[in-house]
Amino acid sequence: MARDGYDFPVYGLNNGMFYPLHIPSLVCTAISFASVIITLVLMIKSRNIKSFFTSWSKSERFILYMALCDGSYNIFHFATHAHVAVVQGPVYPRSVCVLYAFGMIVFVTAQSLLANLVAVNAFMLMYLDKYLNLGRYDWRLIAWVFGAPIIGSTFAAIFEQLGPTGAVCAFDGVNGRITQICFTTGPMILIFVANVALYTATWIRIRSRSLELRRSLGAHCAAQSIPIKAAKAMSLFVGAFFIQWMVVSVYGTWAMVNNGVPDFLEHLYHILPDIGGLLNLIVLLMIRRGNLLSNKKTTPTTTETDARSCTKHSKDSTDGIIPVGDVRKIPLHVIENEKDEITSDL
Fold this sequence. Notes:
This protein is mainly alpha-helical. The protein has helices at residues 18-46, 58-87, 94-128, 139-158, 177-217, 226-258, 263-271, 276-289, 302-318, 332-343, and strands spanning 162-164, 169-171, 321-324, 328-331. The strands form two sheets. The chain has a two-stranded antiparallel sheet with strand order 1-2.
């Protein structure tokens, strides 16, 4: 009877799947880490890092936090795959294996919690007209997103729940199965379902507001595209989160039910989470291309000029108040500034 994960055979050595597992994962992790560096350079180059907590929008700060989570996860995951690939066996001493596992679990959980905060923030903004209060210097976000995983992973390490899985270092293949279900598989499924529900409800809301603005301001007004841009930005976060982490829930559920997973799922489990940095960079580029991030340094664009022109036209016909949905009246200056208010708080 196996006492811990060290009693498991090393995955792939007996069937020729050893290097086909580790080499693709190492390549994807390296690409992801390079993408993280590019993301950080692009963000810091275009914004003043000294004013990170004062002038950066929430969406920009979320992207930076996501990049840091991805980069940190990439470091630990690359280390465990490289170690196993070089020695062609489990990681010794156990303390090193626990260190690899600790780092990966902390930043996997942190990114899941961060994605959920993005969903909650968007939902509150659109339904409750309230912004998620992250605290001074984002201390509430940092305490929850990073503090909770660090505490949980520390207890897991103390009670010997971390160790070899047969492929890498994570939750011990024997002693950590229940902890894995409670710590990652279960919460990951709940977070994913919650994110989909929140984003779906938010998208419906902003789509409705878009139609109301279209009817009130006319088909050619730039302001009508504001909610649609916000919806596109949020859908990108949902898509990236789904691609990167849904396989973790599927893997954990399959292993729990069948006491093992097929080879294709084992490979996806070690590849898809490794491309998070690349996905995050793509999200940043797509959001910038669609002008979904506010940038207070830029001068008024043609879109903003058109919005003011549209607002002036509406003022002439409505005497300064624009009816929306026959139940809400929006002052003209709010319509003029709505782009920054919506996008900067998503």
